[in-house]
Amino acid sequence: MSTDSTPLPSLAELRALARLQGVEPSDADLEAVLGFLGTVLPTLRALEDRTGRDIPPAGMYHPDPEAT
Amino acid sequence: MTIAELAAAIRRGELSPHEAVQAALDRIEREDGAYNSFLAVRGEESLAEADALGAPSGPLHGVPLAVKDVIDVAGTRTTAASKVLADNVATADAIVVARLRRAGAIIVGKLNTHEFAFGASTTSAAFGPARNPWDTERICGGSSGGSGAAVAAGLVPGTLGTDTAGSIRIPAAFCGVTGIRPSTGRVPNRGVVPVSWTYDTVGPLARTAGDCALLLDAIAGPDPDDASTTPVAGEPCLDALQLGVKGLRIGVVSHLVGGEVPLDPGVAAAVETALVVLEDLGAHVERVDAAFLRRAEVVQQLVMLPEAAEAHLPWLRTKLADYGADVRARLLAGLLLPSSAPITGQRARRALAEEARPLFERYDLLAAPEMPLVAPRIGEDPVEVDGHELAYRLSLIPYNSPWSCLGVPTASVPCGFVDGLPVGLALTGRRLGEATVLRAAHAYQQVTDWHERRPPSPA
Lengths: 68, 459
Prior knowledge:
The structure holds 2 protein chains of 2 kinds. Chain A is 50% helix and 0% strand. Chain A is extended, with a radius of gyration of 16 Å. Chain A is built from 2 helices and no strands. By secondary structure, chain B is of the alpha/beta class. Chain B has helices at residues 3-11, 17-31, 43-52, 95-102, 145-152, 169-175, 209-219, 254-257, 265-280, 296-318, 325-336, 340-362, 392-406, 434-447, and strands at residues 38-41, 64-68, 106-111, 123-124, 128-129, 158-163, 178-181, 201-206, 249-253, 284-288, 365-369, 383-385, 388-390, 410-418, 421-429. An 11-stranded mixed β-sheet of chain B has the order 1-3-2-6-8-7-14-15-11-9-10, with helices on both faces. Chain B has a two-stranded antiparallel ribbon with strand order 4-5. A two-stranded antiparallel ribbon of chain B has the order 12-13. Chain B starts with a helix and ends in a 12-residue tail after the last helix. The interface between A and B is large, with 37 and 48 residues.
């Protein structure tokens, strides 16, 4: 999968996003999140690129529309 | 005694439900100090319930069982091993508990779990780690660690756990017991603290595949008030147990046994030996290239983390400091992922399911190691697997996420030991194909005795 450099948000931006949802994390919490995002965001971009946008998202419970 | 043996003894009148429950309570009282597998014991309540049972009617009449502490039992605390829910008393039984009771079982207690079932080590800061009966300095796996430990130690003959990303299978493997994650939707989740609606499922852990079949048949089936259950009941498992594996086609997932992802050589050898046993029993066993399944590793995270964050949002707003650091970090990561993440994840999940369809048309079962290593020491992270140092969490994802993403049933079956610690073989079936999974596990257990091995008594 691609590992293109993906810009990461700053701690201040993450804090603002958390506040929008009524959550007040500490700096240590946000640094842990940033470490996770650094790994997952490039993978997310790569997955977006390779997964056809004409594919409807799976339902929450059953991934295969032909399955019961 | 297995569940089947205990239930038969009670039916024959060789012991009463009261005596069976009292014996379990005595074992818990005597031995669980070494394991910390129980977070709550329903002593007087369970004895009273045993005394109130009428004539034997259900298949679990008088059998003492226990459930993971994310599953509601009316009148008993559901803490999820978290300070967040420390004082949360359930007002009603979860559907699975109601169904166990209807089958005659007595719930003797609630079992330790990774906090909110959101992790794989069962080392809650608030309630203490569950300890592996094979070596109490090691983890039980998780998140249903207490469910695995209680069965391995013989405190109760069967338990319920929950599985979102491996949480039944991992403790079953590390503790040397049998456990099955059913297809998503086969067992109702109502009355269970959620992690991720897309992946959550309740399932049994017990000594044998036969006991798992007994428990699964008791708890499975549609629930009109639970939108997560499939309307199709699925084939009963107990009836299929004796069919054997002759003629079954088993695909061994190449990238999980071929060195592409870290795998302990001792674990690999135990699994290879188990596959030879299945071949000798008449199954057609061959390697299959299914490397596309590696995409499930990130797909699961993209969907699971935001769903978990949403499930926890009221508590994230008001009780953030009450979470353990690891669970708090994962929940916040889910909260702060881009909003496109779960949609992309669900789109990729559908693509993965379509790509996997030919695999399940060609094979009755897929096989792989359940875990790439034996139980690590408590606090050991990163772990070393065949010379690779990696985070414990990352070691388990390739072996567990594919089956969660596909929503298919998968069992861990004891298949050997490495350095005195149990190893599990993962057998995965088609959607709603639990009967075939357990039938193969049962056939394997008729000619092996790994599931009969017992850990040492606590000092």
